[in-house]
Design brief:
The complex is a heterodimer. By secondary structure, chain A is of the alpha/beta class. Chain A contains five helices and five strands, in the order E-H-E-H-E-H-E-H-E-H. The longest helix of chain A is centred in the last third of the chain and has 20 residues. Chain B is α+β, with helices and mostly antiparallel strands. Classes of the chains: A alpha/beta, B alpha+beta. At the A-B interface, helix 1 and helix 4 of A face helix 4 of B.
Chain lengths: 126, 177
């Protein structure tokens, strides 16, 4: 199973998502904003990032930009209430593996995590 | 969206949408709908192709119902919401208002960027506090959740410049259809 970093400023939504992820057998690390997210990436070396977009301070798009700039191989699944097509497209162009709308359905979230981890493993093996 | 949160069927009455001429008229709409009950309000600013804010007001009773259903919290119904309760309302508000604004944006081909949603403790006046040179789009609807009836009002406040941009986008959309 994987170590997953959940970055979400809402106490309630962070609890919902971490519960789903832990019940699937993964280990969870948490962050409440973009700067804490980047610190946790450096400190914990997670296998995957679940990333909210609208957060105080550094937002999710900025985190995606930093990861793209550093050519990070960390797979990212974006979780957002934003349903604008332009935003979804922008996140995928910045390297996100998937974009799910909130509140996430458990099966859709776990499937996106499995797919992103699977792709990352295949990239590592090449 | 809301039914995804509560895992139950949510029935939504067809919303009434009204463009209010000024701040006082918008306040009257909210007060008429929620009958001067204590309110729980979530507000989210936005900028980009349109500038303004969206606010969602629930009666305090409805807010406590949602908070206890989703967050196992909320606190006592006749008291202010606790931290978990506020977090629940903020997230429900975030999803509902992003849905409204995002649907408008996708349809009208305009893009907005959201600010962090906030919980307002000072009621309906704070929903329209920055309403100096603004137009007010008010949508009110009733939600039925299982046997519980909840009432909510969404107000979208556009700056005057954005109001014109909004109407231009509506015109373009209608011409293209």
């Amino acid at each position: 199973m994987a170590k997953i970093l959940v970055t979400e400023d809402s106490i309630y939504m962070r609890r919902v998502v971490t519960t789903m992820v832990r019940e699937a057998g993964h280990t969870v690390v948490e962050a409440a904003d973009g700067d804490e997210c980047l610190r946790q990436i450096a400190a914990e070396s997670p296998d995957l990032l679940l990333l909210d977009l609208v957060m105080p301070g550094r937002d999710g798009l900025s985190v995606l930009g930093e990861l793209a700039k550093s050519e990070s191989s960390l797979p990212v699944v974006v979780l957002s209430a934003d349903i604008q097509e332009s935003v979804r497209r922008g996140c995928l162009e910045l390297g996100a593996k998937a974009f799910l709308n909130k509140p996430p359905k458990k099966e859709a979230l776990l499937a996106a995590i499995r797919q992103a981890l699977g792709e990352a493993n295949r990239d590592t093996e090449r | 969206m809301l039914n995804d949160f509560v895992q139950q069927r949510v029935e939504l009455q067809v919303p009434e949408v009204y463009l209010c001429a000024d701040r006082d008229e918008a306040i009257r709409w909210v007060q008429e709908t929620l009958r001067n009950q204590n309110l729980a309000v979530v507000q989210m600013g936005f900028d980009g192709d349109m500038t303004g804010s969206a606010s969602l007001a629930f009666s305090r009773r409805s807010a406590h119902l949602l908070a206890s259903m989703l967050g196992d919290g909320g606190g006592k119904p006749d008291e202010a919401l606790d931290a978990i309760g506020e977090s629940v309302l903020i997230e429900v508000g975030n999803v509902l208002m992003s849905g409204v604004m995002g649907t408008l944006g996708n349809m009208l081909r305009v893009e907005v960027h959201y600010q962090v949603p906030l919980f307002l403790r000072h009621g309906v006046e704070m929903m329209v506090a920055d309403g100096g040179d603004c137009a007010f789009l008010v949508a009110r609807t009733k939600l039925s959740l299982a046997d519980l009836e909840m009432e909510g009002v969404i107000i979208v406040l556009f700056s005057l410049r954005s109001h014109d941009a909004f109407l231009d986008a509506v015109d373009r959309c209608l011409e293209a259809s």
